[in-house]
């Protein structure tokens, strides 16, 4: 109310004093600090976030009959973690989401932890029919009473089925279908139809390894093999795995890819998701020899080197559409997720991404790129052919675009052994910087000047880095900006960094910093995205 009265007084004063001081009056009005609501400042424009409550891991994703289904770990009664439910949202294009009623509630067997869902097209489970195939979900039961009592076997696996395309679910009367084999961390089952070996397979996390199971009917499962105890990053517990075959880009050959999230132990602290590439004979996963060497040398290869992409998994039944392998992750980090400065809700998901398996100079890389559907939301495009950067240069500002919803692409040329830095900033002196350090061979994000950072000692305690090997004199970069998140796809998505930030006001400038030597920015495409 005080702010409104003050503004009205300034307007009245300007009218009384006339044009002599008009410029000064206008400046005073412009300098008035706007009070932003939490939603205006922090709720994403186009990344999924629940209307209220706490959200973490994506769960149970499948495509069917024109809809992409996204389930997720959800606690509706608070903005911090609590007894887990499965929330539910649907979309026709992976970008605009409609939140649906809660899908699964905790029961006497425990909280409903992470898991997956598949479309049982051939009705192998017997829960539906060929005409009306069931959706079958598998999840981890987490028995908090047993855990509190000090028992080790407090996690087991249960299933539920839906006969109305995922809107409501019936839990299987014989749950749990996989009892705990005396492992403390025994969770996060991810099911996949293995068309190559004509079986259902399921991978789950077993503490310091993944465990592969097989089934013919989604109800009776047998342990096939274990993987990972002696390889990969082991700074924390393995969680939320995924396992699927992928064609090697540009060939008819395929490999199997395994994802395994880890917390803590990520490349920049806290939680992150590593991956492995190899072969699967229907029972055992064997890591590719060259990939094993890369893992050992680099101490893990990561889907995303930023600090805010965790527990990501892929949609099932997607081959019905176009064969893409589409991934989404939780855009936060267990180091600080429960402390970020939002109250109504906490957490959002990354932009859905298409994964592509590349073989380059004998090395396998799982690259990522935003799903093509994002292009349907372009409102206007600004292009700049070539810019030579020899001083601090504003590439775009708030007068031309709304920097809270952008898709930016550009190429760098004439790169030397130097540091190339870019920033999003505003008039409140908030900024987030990112770029390429070719002196020490890493990409980076620095959010130490992004304003609200004191809610956690580790949120901005260091620059996040993604190492690279080899030399280059040019680089393609794509950036997705949505209010308080930045997703950077370096080198056509071969290295990705995702981080969140909390400024005092919206970002207003996108700039390139001067380096020690002149360099060139080419093919700049700035797409303003259209979201209300």
TrEMBL record:
Keyword match Hydrolase: yes
Domain (Glycosyl hydrolase family 32 C-terminal): residue spans on this chain: 378-522
PROSITE patterns: GLYCOSYL_HYDROL_F32, PROKAR_LIPOPROTEIN
A GO CC annotation given for this chain: cytoplasm
Organism of derivation: Flavobacterium sp. WC2409
Domain Glycosyl hydrolase family 32 N-terminal, chain residue ranges per copy: 47-364
Gene Ontology molecular function: sucrose alpha-glucosidase activity
Domain of life: Bacteria
Family: Belongs to the glycosyl hydrolase 32 family.
Entry keyword set: Glycosidase, Hydrolase
The protein, known as: Glycoside hydrolase family 32 protein
UniProt cross-references to InterPro entries, sorted A to Z: ConA-like_dom_sf, Glyco_hydro_32, Glyco_hydro_32_AS, Glyco_hydro_32_C, Glyco_hydro_32_N, Glyco_hydro_beta-prop_sf
Any single biological process term in GO: sucrose catabolic process
């Amino acid at each position: 109310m005080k702010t409104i009265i003050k503004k009205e007084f300034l307007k009245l004063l300007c009218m009384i004093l006339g044009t002599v001081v008009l410029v000064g009056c206008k400046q005073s009005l412009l300098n008035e600090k706007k009070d932003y609501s939490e939603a205006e400042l922090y709720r994403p424009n186009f990344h999924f976030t629940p209307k209220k409550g706490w959200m973490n891991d994506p769960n149970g994703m499948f495509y069917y009959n024109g809809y992409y289904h996204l389930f997720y770990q959800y606690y509706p009664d608070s903005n911090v973690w609590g007894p887990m439910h499965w929330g539910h949202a649907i979309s026709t294009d992976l970008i605009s989401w409609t939140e649906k009623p809660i899908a699964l509630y905790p029961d006497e067997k425990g909280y409903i932890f992470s898991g997956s869902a598949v479309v049982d097209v051939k009705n192998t489970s017997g829960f539906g029919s060929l005409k009306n195939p069931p959706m079958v979900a598998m999840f981890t039961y987490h028995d908090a009473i047993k855990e509190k009592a000090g028992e080790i076997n407090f996690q087991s696996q249960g299933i539920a089925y839906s006969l109305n395309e995922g809107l409501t679910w019936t839990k299987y009367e014989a749950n749990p279908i996989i009892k705990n084999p005396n492992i403390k961390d025994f969770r996060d089952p991810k099911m996949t139809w293995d068309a190559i070996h004509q079986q259902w397979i399921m991978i789950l996390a077993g503490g310091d390894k993944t465990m592969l199971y097989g089934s013919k009917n989604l109800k009776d499962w047998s342990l096939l093999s274990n993987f990972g105890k002696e390889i990969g990053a082991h700074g924390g517990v393995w969680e939320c795995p995924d396992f699927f075959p992928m064609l090697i880009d540009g060939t008819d050959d395929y490999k199997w890819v395994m994802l395994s999230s880890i917390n803590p132990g990520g490349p920049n602290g806290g939680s992150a998701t590593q991956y492995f590439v190899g072969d699967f004979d229907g029972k055992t996963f064997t890591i590719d020899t060259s990939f094993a060497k890369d893992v050992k040398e680099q101490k893990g290869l990561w889907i995303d080197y930023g600090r805010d992409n965790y527990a990501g998994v892929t949609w099932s039944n997607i081959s019905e559409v176009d064969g893409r392998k589409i991934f989404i992750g939780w855009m936060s980090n267990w180091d600080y997720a429960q402390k970020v400065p939002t109250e109504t809700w906490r957490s959002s998901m990354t932009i859905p991404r298409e994964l592509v398996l590349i073989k380059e100079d004998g090395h396998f890389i799982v690259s990522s790129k935003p799903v093509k559907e994002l292009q349907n939301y372009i409102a206007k495009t600004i292009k700049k052919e070539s810019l030579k950067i020899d001083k601090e240069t504003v590439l775009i500002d708030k007068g031309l675009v709304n920097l809270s919803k952008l898709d930016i692409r550009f190429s760098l040329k004439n790169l030397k052994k130097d540091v190339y830095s870019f920033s999003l900033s505003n008039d409140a002196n908030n900024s987030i910087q990112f770029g390429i350090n070719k002196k020490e061979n890493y990409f980076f994000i620095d959010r130490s000047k992004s304003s609200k950072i004191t809610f956690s000692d580790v949120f901005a305690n260091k620059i996040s880095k993604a190492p690279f090997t080899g030399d280059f004199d040019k680089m393609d970069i794509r950036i997705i900006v949505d209010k308080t998140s930045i997703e950077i796809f370096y080198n056509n998505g071969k290295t990705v960094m995702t981080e969140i930030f909390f400024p005092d006001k919206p970002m207003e400038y996108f700039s390139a910093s001067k380096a020690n030597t002149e360099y060139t920015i080419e093919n700049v495409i700035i797409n303003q995205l259209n979201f209300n």
